Amino acid sequence: MHYKLCNFASPKKYKLLSASNLSVQFGKRILFDNVNIKFTPGNCYGIIGANGSGKSTFLKILAGKMEANSGNISLEPGKRLSVLEQDHNSHNEYTIIDTVLRGNKILYDIKNEMENIYSKSDFSDKDGERVGELQAIYEDKGGWNAESDAATLLSSLGVNESLHLKSMNEVEGYIKVKVLLAQALFGNPDVLIMDEPTNDLDYETIIWLENFIANFENTVIVVSHDRHFLDAVCTHISDIDFGKINHYSGNYTFWYESSQLASRQRQQQNKKAEEKKKELEDFISRFSANVAKSKQATSRKKMIEKLNIEEIKPSSRRYPAIIFKQEREAGNQILNIKDLKYSLEGELLFDNITFNLVKGEKVIFFSKDKRAITKFFEIINDEEKDFEGKFEWGITTKISYLPIDNSSYFKSDINLIDWLRQFTEDDEEKKELFIRGFLGKMIFSGDEALKKVSVLSGGEKVRCMLSKMMMKKSNILVVDEPTNHLDLESITAFNNGLKNFDGTVLLSTHDNTFAQTVGDRVIELTPKGAIDRLLKFDDYMKDLSLKEIRAKFYN
Fold first, then answer.
1. Mean pLDDT score of the chain, rounded to an integer?
2. CATH architecture of 2-79+224-311
3. How far is CA 231 from CA 235, 236, 252, in A?
4. Residue 204: pLDDT above 80?
5. Would you call 540 exposed, middle or buried from its count of C-beta atoms within 10 A (0-12, 13-18, 19+)?
6. Hey, what long-range contacts does 187-190 have (CB within 8 A, 24 or more apart)?
7. DSSP code, position 481
8. Was domain 333-554 assigned CATH 3.40.50.300?
9. pLDDT over threshold 80, residue 347
10. What's the rounded mean pLDDT across residues 479-496?
11. CA 284/CA 233 separation, integer angstroms
12. Residue 29: beta bridge partners?
């Protein structure tokens, strides 16, 4: 494959970045076959596809970090492409401010060359001429304001000015994530490529990034499993299916709902073509009206410029069937917490936590330190004993727990059927058909159910855990960061499963859509107590009076 700069003969054919006849094959497996696609200025493209479809591979090829078997990647001459760095330790020898400046390599190299010339003891006339040339380019590219611009960007992302001159190897991982994000955004790149940019970001930073991209005038290409993020920033969805990539106007929700509608229509053999067309037109009209009220509609980059009926096509996606049922209803008393306190290696994560849960509540647990929620869930599931205070479950409760780390469940080398069989609640061996039924709901059918658990991917392990939870038929579900490792199809099905569950849910998630659509109560754990409100998550986070209260609980 060749990575080349293109000359564009006509403005009508103007394209910023494109892939031509792109093919990628690993052994006998064909990932992409003769893909032709272009990315035009001013749009944000959300790359979606099932796990293993090649989303991250495609981004690496676009960024020039990986070679395809054949085809070309073309970038318009003079344009700069920026990529969100995935290796959090790749800049450990640099200061935070220098790491950001390195995001604009041309500018950074000019700065270094000028400094090297000025440091020469035998400064010549030729050196003077060269410095003059470099200074002119440096000024034209905004070099004299680069450090202040980088500092402003860091501060906007919540990286305190006192850290800017520290080395990257001196700061915590969550700070490194923000610095690398600032590096990718720095200098107004013409093309911005990001793979899972919201991973490890706090809620406030994700909202900041959504607003930044919504008003970013250049081209963005992003892979994300965060549906709220895709809805907030995308003007197009780029779907990888059957080895091809197709652009669809609109955000993720429009793509999902329209593809579901198209699938239903395809199954309606007796429905007239005119009726189907009218149904599609009504759907587009309703969606466009909702978009007009969104923040994207007032930004320089519109979420949707044009929606065509012809673009609406059914998807080949397979969605797991995640359906939680209770074996029996719990009584009114679910969980009583009294003066709970926990410290990790001398650091206080939460203290004075007192509240009561009753039947049917769906609660979002939140903290600025995500370790606090994980430890809290481990305590109430009897997996952490070193704490102060007490908790008591109601006598009719039956609990299923999805931990953030499920590795302890997958240390054997048995197949999936035998793995799930070990969690049946009676001594009699369950029939294989019964076990396969729950595995089949999670798309482990046929020979897939005979896979060894030792070779499962992260997403497959979570789906196995969900099979286990469904089989147990508990009336309480405790779920810690459920979207980790899952694809969008599984996330959507899991989200719907929790919404439709009649029992009680205790949920921690960085997925805004999950939090907003499942929970009706928010409990925030802090070092000074619990903040407890009967609110939807977005209302809780946007309440200005609560922001002042929350600040006092952490300071």
1. 88
2. 3-Layer(aba) Sandwich (3.40)
3. 9, 10, 5
4. yes
5. buried
6. 187/80, 187/82, 187/103, 187/104, 187/107, 187/142, 187/146, 187/149, 188/218, 189/80, 189/81, 189/82, 189/103, 189/104, 189/218, 190/16, 190/41, 190/76, 190/79, 190/80, 190/81, 190/218, 190/219
7. S
8. yes
9. yes
10. 92
11. 19
12. 26
CB atoms within 10 A of CB 161: 11
Pairing of strands 529-533, 521-526: antiparallel
Tokens at 148, concatenated:
């202040």
Distance CA 453, CA 462 (A): 11
Which CA distances in Å does 180 have to 3, 92, 185, 345, 364?
25, 11, 9, 28, 29
Distance CA 256, CA 250 (A): 10
**Phi and psi at residue 22, in whole multiples of 5°?**
-80, 125
Q: How open is the CA angle 49-52-53, to the nearest 5 degrees? A: 40
Q: Are residues 228 and 516 in contact, defined by beta-carbon separation less than 8 angstroms?
A: yes
The pLDDT assigned to 114 comes to 84
CB 341 within 8 A of CB 350: yes
User: Which runs of consecutive H residues, i.e. helices, occur in 202-314?
Assistant: 203-214, 227-233, 252-267, 273-292
Sequence spans of domains, the chain: 2-79+224-311, 87-187, 333-554
pLDDT, tens only, 120-178? 888 888 878 888 888 888 777 777 888 899 999 999 999 999 999 999 999 988 899 99
Measured CA to CA in angstroms, residue 173 lies from 89, 169, 417 at distances of 9, 9, 38
At 462, the amino acid letter reads V
**Pairwise CA distance, residues 46 & 212, whole Å:** 16
Burial 472-507 (b: 16+ CB within 10 A, else e): bebbbbbbbbbbbbbbbbbbbbbbbbbeebebbbbb
Residue 78 contacts residue 8 (beta carbons within 8 Å): no
pTM: 0.84
Pick left, alpha or beta for residue 187 (phi over 0 → left; psi -120 to 50 → alpha; otherwise beta): left
Phi/psi at 442 (5° precision) = -100, 20
